[in-house]
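Structure tokens please, single chain.
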Amino acid sequence: MHMRYLCGTALALLAATAQPALAADAAASDSTETKELVGNEIIVTASKREQRLIDVPASIVAVTDVDLRRRGATELRDILANTAGVNNPSAGARSLANITIRGVTTGTVSGIRQNTVQQLYDDIPLDPTANAGTTNLRLIDVERVEVLRGPQGTLFGSGSLAGALRYVTRKPDVDTASGRIEGSVSFTKDGGTNGSGQATVNIPLIPGKLALRASGYAFGDAGWVDNQRTGRKDENGSETYGGRATLHWQATETFQADLSWLYQSINDKATGGSNYDGPDHDQMTIGRVDTAFRGRNSIVGLNLKYDAGSFTVTSQSTYHDRKLRYVSQNGYYFPLVTGILSGFQNVQEGYSSDISPNNGKIFTQELRIASSGTGPFKWTVGGFYLDADITAGQFARSPDLVPILGGDNVVDLNIKGRQIEYAGFGEATYTLGDKIDLSAGVRVSRVTLRNDVRTGGFLPVFSLDPAAYVNQTFNQRNTPVTPHFSITWRPTQDLSLYAAAARGYRVGGINVTSGVGGRNTPRTYGSDSLWNYEVGIKGRLFDGRLDFALAGYYIDWKDIQVSLVNNIGNYTGNAGRAHLYGVEFEGTARLTDHFTLGAAFNFASNEIAQRTEGLGTAAGVVTVVPGDKLAASPESQANGFAEYRFDLGKTQVYARIAARYVGPAYTAFNRAGARFGDYGAADLRIGADFGRFELVGFINNLTDSAGKTSAGDATFAGPVLLSEKVAFRLQPRTIGLTVRANF
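Here you go.
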């Protein structure tokens, strides 16, 4: 069983010297100044081949390096805040990301299931395993971020049910030595001082043949939430450090190899939950449970590429070693146990601690062959293999319970899991008259899960015998098929219209406490899948000064995986069917050589399409019926920016203001549970580029909005309050300064 890997994804996407921004194809971006350009157009590799962004028959946002820097994007939330239809209703710390696209979600916590959005670091899948959660990496020295809306199962497999995020890093330069160093300091209202530093260097070891590119970084993010119980201030701080190195060998004109290594350590000191009804940041306090998250990721990748002229062969081998510990102190286990033993007539307070580790060793191998050239027929075929070993568990101890239980073992859960996957995929496109592209593709996978579970402790087995353990073995096999079809019409080189249909898939899993302690829960839960149907138009007008993209979609999602509660335990079940539909837009207008405007929005709706009874949630046992709304799925989002650039002598100066709005959402089905969202926020940045040096002042959350980005319902066992109703809010107004130097 793969327990929830409680790490989210972070981005530190900062690039080299600032340049005047140009309009981007179909993206809410104000620049195309990257290596991936042909003339004035962005070239993306979202389909595992180079294409003009305007030609890709899908809703894609490509955020360039210059735009990332202009936004001050340093982590995942900065990307999501400026991308329509993409959200992060995460109920926890920075590392507890819960990325959603087009509202494909059923709660603020993704639980122990596989993600609905796949993340890729170049060609490396970050979260390919079932129940592995979201890997939280702060990435620096990035060339481009591609946000792919809609299922991407044909090329990227399971875990891309709703879409994918792809981070394209800068590659070593075999000809020119270069480097960059950057530092930031900022101050958060009612919080502490934040600081960060990063450095990148590119060294040609053998000019024209061999080069090394290496980066290192450290982030210290002070908290702003005070602990009401302990009196500690600014408890939800976070510390992150890591590095990346890539060795590039251009062996011949036709063969190249890249060996990459990435390491990161993260320590989130608390979740950042605060009193739900607190009206502003000054009254933010957290309750009785103290939590922390500590994670470590080490990833090694080998990419080989051979150009045979008429086709190219690419091999990507990856080994990912991850370790995570979720630590909770002074939790609810002591009062829960005393309440159970006394029939809830004598609930006492006492100390307990809970540690939930999740360690994984994941190997993946992909081999693909793609056609080259400019002929009308283009194709890609490939194979994929995954072998993952996961060790996870939960260990809760309470020394205060020794007089009652005869020991301190409250929960002792040990899991050894293995996932093996084989897949073959193919895609082909035929172009008629250089105007119409007909595309089709399919992926067929075979996924095998085996989990050996050893369960002990008072709560799981309801026994006072410290030697009482239950051993179970779970097996599951799935054979998903994920096709896609599309047609694209280009009446001109600056306008394209498309229609597409694609299927996404997520693997099933097992419930580790099924049948233990009298729990009446299913042993396994099934896979879920969806079909996405969309039409769209992309265009560039007025000699590239106006770029836009408009798409409409309809999603049929069935066998929805949801987190449920039963007999003081969590499990995953399947909840029928839902329909989602919406319209999304992005546009960028370079009104003059100095002034740029951009806007994006998503208007959506969703509803349950099939009745499902007996769903145990934090809000109680519910029945969902057709017409009910999904949980944690906002039905409107919008963002925009205005940027003005001018020269002051030899200095390039810019000022940028960006604003966003997220509509209301709820923690439970049918707009029940805690309400969150329905907030707006704005950021301001002013920068000056002196050539080799750049100075940027910024104010994040300019109006000091206390908007609720997520929430958690209070939970009870009888009269025992297990967890309080909490809100997760925007970071208060933060004022800072960034300095960059290039050499």
